[in-house]
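[Meeting: bench + compute handoff]

Bench side (C.D.) handed over the final construct sequence. Compute side (W.E.) agreed to return the predicted structure before the next meeting so the bench team could plan truncations. Sequence as handed over:
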Amino acid sequence: MALFWCTEALPLAVTALFPVLLFPLMNIMDSTTVRDITLSIFAYVFIDAIHSYCVLMSLGQDRASESAFSLNIGFLSLFSLPCSILQVCREYLKDTNMLFIGGLLMAIAIENWHLHKRVALRVLLITGVRPALLLMGFMIVTAFLSMWISNTATTAMMVPIAQAVLEQLHKSEMEFSTVSQASENINKAFELQEKSTKSDSSKETEEKGEWVMGEDRERNENLREEKHKKFCKGMSLCICYSASIGGIATLTGTTPNLVLQGQVDELFPNNGNIINFASWFSFAFPTMILLLVLAWIWLQILYLGFNFQKNFGCAANASAKAKAKQAYDIIKEESKKLGSMKFAEIAVLILFILLVLLWFTRDPGFIPGWATVLFNKNDTSYVTDATVAIFISILLFIIPSGISNYDRDKHQTGSKPKIRAPPALLDWKVVHQKMPWNIVLLLGGGFALAKGSEESGLSSWLGNKLTPLQHIPHPAIALLLCLLIATFTECTSNVATTTLFLPILASMAEAICLNPLYVMLPCTLSASLAFMLPVATPPNAIVFSYGQLKVIDMAKAGFVLNILGVLTITLAINTWASSLFQLQTFPSWANKTGTCP
C-alpha cells in the first residue's frame, strides 16, 4: 500500500480500500475488525483536528509557536474520552456501507460508458413499438437497469428516450391524418365538377354535410390528441413505477434493502449471514416480476383501455403500422448512433457479469460457495458480498479503457511517436462527481440510531407496547404493517422509514416470539411502494417535472398499485419466502433473552 500511495498508481482513496479486500482473503481479520480499526483512527484524527483548530483560532496566528504543544495535548486528551464516541463512529462504516460503495462504483462505470443506454435501446428494438408491448419494453428495461444502478439515474435516462418515441408516434399519426384529409378533399373536388348542375336544395344539403364532416374531423382530432395525452401519462408512470419496483430485486438495488441487511447484522450478530445477495435475490426477484406484471396490466387498463387486441397491434390498420414503423426507426437510429461496442464497454460488461456471478456463488446456501471453499479459517469465511464489490471496484481503476495508442503529434515534437497509456475504466474525478456520499452518511446515521435505540432500551420498550398484536394471526400482522409502511413512505424518505421502523419491529417480533424476518422483510419491500405522490421518490419527481402528469393522475394510479404491491408482498412472505428463510419457526439467533421456545 505504501508503494501505491507513493507512486499514486491508483487514486489514494482506492488504495485505502485494499485492507477491506485483502485482509479477509488472507484470513488476517474480517471486514468488521478492519472497519473498527479504520474508524478508530478516523475518530482520533478527526477530533484531534477539530481540537487543534479551535485552539489555534483562540490563540491567534501570532501564537503559532505553541500550536505543536496544543496538537499533542489534543491528541492525548482523546484517550480520556468515553469509548461511546468510537462506538458511534463504528456505525458509520459497516460492511453494508462498503457493499453500497462497491455497488455504486460499478453503477457509475456503467453510466460513464453509456452501457445502460445500449441495453435499453437493444431491448426496445426486440419488444417493438405496439402500445402494450412498448409499455412492457420500457418497464422491463427500466426495472432491469434499476436493479443495478440508481433508480434516479435510470429514470433520468429512460424518460427522454420515451419522449422521443412518443413524439414520433404522434407526429406520424398527425401526418397520416393530414394526408387522408387532403385525399378526401381531392375526391370531393372531382365530385363537384361532375355535379355542377345541381339544384339549390341539393347544394344546401351538400353544404350542411360538409359542415357535419368538419365537426367530425375536429372531434376526431380532439380524440386523437386526448388518446396521445393518455398514452404519454401511462408511459411516464410506467417508467417511474418500474424504477421503484426494479430496485427491490437486488440487495444493492435500493438503499432500504441495505438498511435491512445492516439492521439484521447489528441487532442479531449470530444470524449466520442469513441476508446476503443470493438469498435476497431468491426472495425479492419473483416478487418484483409479479408486481411488475400487475403494474403493466393496471397501467394498460387505465390508459390504453380494455381492447387488448388493439393494444397488442393485432388489428392494426395502415395508419398504425406506418406510425409504428417510424417510431421503430427512431429507436433504431438512436441505437446506430452508439456505434459498435467499444473496448471499455466490453470490459465493464464483463466485470459486471463477473460481479453478479461472484455474488451468487459466494454462499448460495444449497451448496458450499467459493468463499467457504477457498477462504476458510476455522470453518469461518471472512469474505462477504462487500469484499466482492470492492474487488471488482478496484479492477475498474486498474483495467485500461482501451488499447495503448501512439502519440499522433509527431510533427510537433520532432521525435519518435510515444506510446500513451489510455485512462482506466474509472477515475476518481468521475466518482467524486457522481458518488452520493450523503447516502453513505445517511446509512451510517441509521445504523447509529438503531444501535442507540437498542442500547437505551427504546426499541424494546416500543416493541413491548406492540405485544397485543400477538393475538392477531401472523399474516394479518404482516398485512397491517405493510399498509402502515406503504402509507408512511409516501411522505418520508424510504431510507428514513426503514431506519425508524425496523428496530422497533425486530423488538416486537422478539416480544411475541415471531421470526423477526417475517415482519422486517415485507416492511422493507413496502418502503419502496412510493407510487402516489411526486415527492415520494425521485423517479416520481423526474417524470412529474415533464408536465404531462397531474397529482391526481399519479395518486389514482398509485393508490391501486400500492394495494397490489401490499398484497403481492403478503403473498410472497407467506409462500416462497417462508420456506426460504424458515419463517414459520423462531430462530435461535433471535432468541437473545431465552424466553421463547
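W.E. noted at the follow-up: The two ends are 50 Å apart (CA to CA). C.D. will use this when planning the next construct.
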